């Protein structure tokens, strides 16, 4: 009995050690205006508010047949902020962690999944990029940018936001009343639903090929609305709000009070 108990304990400790090896944690101080960027390939990216100026990124690697630790979690720090990437191994190399749309991220059909949980300090901008996975960024206070190929996107922020997907719906709640520049929300297969704060000023360009467009915002149409597209002004007009999908509907909603 004692041997069996000891064996179970050793097996349990071994499992915990394996889990620890497959988890990654980074933290650091970021100031308002800087960018916290996370770039994955296969897995979800979830962002939530941090409780103070300390930013955190936690990555959990998992696989049913491969060694999860084969995927490196790289951190690139610069004057603009921090970029954290899941870098998958490739036979000839070539994958690289670089800020923004630069760099290369591919998984060569790997089954290793990397899920990120990100804690974003107040005023810090957030950007997420992934290929196979959903992106969630809720109750943030600054600008948000989200991109995926296959997966849904959910955003709520007091800052500006933009999002793109290929196969997945987009839902965004924008509680900021002042728009500084143009924003784009686009997908191919999926709906786009935007909830906007009263009092914004923007020009809307909405298009879809396989769904309807509806709005409960106080808008002024530029000419007659046609099936699949319309141009309109919200308030006094201003920055462009471009919303598009191919196979899906577009919904523009007005929110009654801030939710962030």
Essential attributes:
mainly beta, 260 residues, 21 strands
Structure notes:
- With 260 residues, this protein is mainly β.
- Strand 18 (219-221) and strand 19 form a beta hairpin.
- Residues 1-19 have low confidence and may be disordered.
- The chain has two domains: 22-151, no CATH class; 183-260, no CATH class.
- Helices cover 8% and strands 45% of the residues.
**Strand residue percentage:** 35-45%
Report strand order across the widest sheet: 5-6-2-8-10-12-14-20-16-19-18
Instruction: Report the structural category.
Output: mainly beta
- Percent helix range: under 10%
Low-pLDDT runs of 5+ residues are 1-19
Strands, total number: 21
What's the gyration radius in Å? 21 Å
Supply the number of helical segments: 1
SSE arrangement, N to C:
HEEEEEEEEEEEEEEEEEEEEE
